[in-house]
Structures are given as structure tokens and as C-alpha cells.
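Note to self: keep these together.
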Amino acid sequence: QVQLVESGGGSVQAGGSLRLSCAASGFKYVTYRMGWFRQVPGNEREGVAALSSDGTTIYADSVKGRFTISKADAWNSLLWLEMNSLKPEDTATYYCAAKGGQMRSSLTPGAYATWGQGTQVTVSS
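Structure:
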């Protein structure tokens, strides 16, 4: 069974940086679509950054130029989200997600099958 475990969240002042990690295990497919999402209570979950099975990346307009998604190896065992120039509006619970197969990147939550438990990011002004 695929499991995703996020870490690296915390509290930071505006303008600061954080790096989120997502440790993946139990993968059955060779290739995966992977992504980072965030959610604020009362709001829908929104896509932040995604990585296709062939390494193509896409970002939400709100984080372009500030966030970078990457993975440690070809086996998708560790996914990162480097977040720079953080703003108070980036405050949310951040989730990583995955779906197996040859797939394009996607920022749509419904395009993913497996989710982590989330890690909280709080940015103060």
C-alpha cells in the first residue's frame, strides 16, 4: 500500500523559507504523478505544484518563482517543496499526493489517488 508522510512544516516570518519533504513508500508503479496541495479550513484544497511522471513541473500562479518542486531520485521515494519568500497567505496545511502511471502533471486534487496526512505551515507578518 502506498504511503506518503510529509514533514518540514513550521512557523516562519514573512520573507522566510521552508522546505517540505514527502517520504513515499509502497509504490507499485515505476512512474508516478506527484504533487503538493494546500488547504485552509473552510476552503477547497488547491494545487500548489506538481511533477509529471517524466519530470515536467507546473505551478499555481500564486507561487510561481517562489516555490520549487523536486524529487530526490527516479523512484519517487522523496519529494520536496522548497518555499521561498513566504507570505502570510501561504499559511495552510500542505499535503503531498501521488498517482501511479505515465501521467502529465496536474494541480487538480481529483487527479490523485493517495494523500499524506499533511503538515502545517504558518507564515506571520
